[in-house]
Design a protein that fits this description.
By secondary structure, the protein is of the alpha/beta class. Helices cover 44% and strands 15% of the residues. The chain has 9 helices and 6 strands. It has a 6-stranded parallel β-sheet, sandwiched between helices. Helix 2 crosses helix 3 and helix 4 (96-110) crosses helix 6. The radius of gyration is 16 Å and the shape is globular.
Amino acid sequence: MASFPLLLLPGLLCDDRLWHEPAEALADVADIHHADLTRDDSVAGMAARVLASAPPVFALAGLSMGGYVAFEILRQAPQRVARLALLDTSARLDPPKRLLVRQAGLAMAEAGRFAGVTRKLLPQLVHESRVDSAVGEEVMAMAQRVGLPAFLRQQRAIIDRPDSLPLLPTIRVPTLLGVGEDDRMTLPEETRLMHERIPGARLHVFARCGHLPPMEVPQETAAVLRDWLTAP
């Protein structure tokens, strides 16, 4: 089977490590491309940078912030996206309380109080069974690698992102929607809303999983992505 280009978009404070195991497992059916979302302070800038170096046509998978960028790629170049996978993300703007939390975190980071992902924050990102595990350690290390300057840019981009709800009914490519059953960062109801509004979208819920299925349940994530990539 010929490999098809698969472009992977990471989340906030995530790098290529987020997708490492699923990418390896999909190497026989996908030509993997990892996007760098650390260098721009708007989702429009992130999307434009990704598109500038991406293959002419590709399958697109984004997690959390990567989903926001995926929506922007669809706005800028819909003809280049052959398939779409959105994991643990939302099409809606942040509700007021969540926006205040983001703005407070941004202000603290701007004042030099950047701690990355702490052990205290881990329960918001991974299932409770993985907080004190190698996965938890990898999540904290990944955030430190991405670092403060990139966090500032990413958080500004997220705060200023456009509303993607109007885009959902226009999506016409095979679409996979996935969410951790226990995601506390982006609630499963956000994924169910997208499932209602994207024509023909397929929904997958990862049991006993938080916000980061590619790291928490990599084999299941790879299997679901394989089905999505190889379906007629």
